[in-house]
Structures are given as structure tokens and as C-alpha cells.
Design brief:
By secondary structure, the protein is mainly alpha-helical. 75% of the residues lie in helices and 0% in strands. It has 3 helices and no strands. It is extended and about 45 Å long. The relative contact order is 0.08.
Length: 73
């Protein structure tokens, strides 16, 4: 259980530092929900971008990308 807590805190610490997850002063459920949704969508985008940059830096090709499938056909 102690290790799980650290993982959860790390996952919530990243959007707090990078995306302003904790800067919401919403006064309604709708405002809070919109802010959280946009922060999580931005976090997903940044995670995908980071993974792509790491993959390119490592020099690995992505055989499942649409461009690779079209070129193979």
C-alpha cells in the first residue's frame, strides 16, 4: 500500500506542476469539471508527446503508425 500511495502522489504532482491543476478557483461543479477535464486532456497529450520524443531519441521506428502501414502497403 505504501508504494501505491507514492505512485498516486507522483501522478497528481506532475499535472499540478506542469498544468496548473491546483490553480482552479471554480465556484461550481461544472467549472471544476471543465478545468479538470482540460488538465487531464493536456496531460494525456503531453505524455504522448514525451513518449514519442523518447522513442525518436532512442532511434526506434514505430511499425504501427499510420505512415508506416501506408508505406508498407
Amino acid at each position: 500500500m505504501a508504494g501505491l500511495r507514492w505512485t498516486i502522489e507522483t501522478c497528481l504532482g506532475t499535472p499540478k506542476g506542469e498544468l496548473g491543476l491546483d490553480h482552479c478557483e471554480a465556484r461550481s461543479w461544472d467549472g471544476w469539471h471543465r478545468h479538470m477535464t482540460l488538465c487531464m486532456a493536456a496531460l494525456a497529450f503531453l505524455a504522448r508527446l514525451r513518449a514519442e520524443l523518447v522513442r525518436v531519441a532512442a532511434g526506434k521506428s514505430n511499425e504501427r503508425s499510420p505512415e508506416a502501414v501506408v508505406e508498407a502497403a
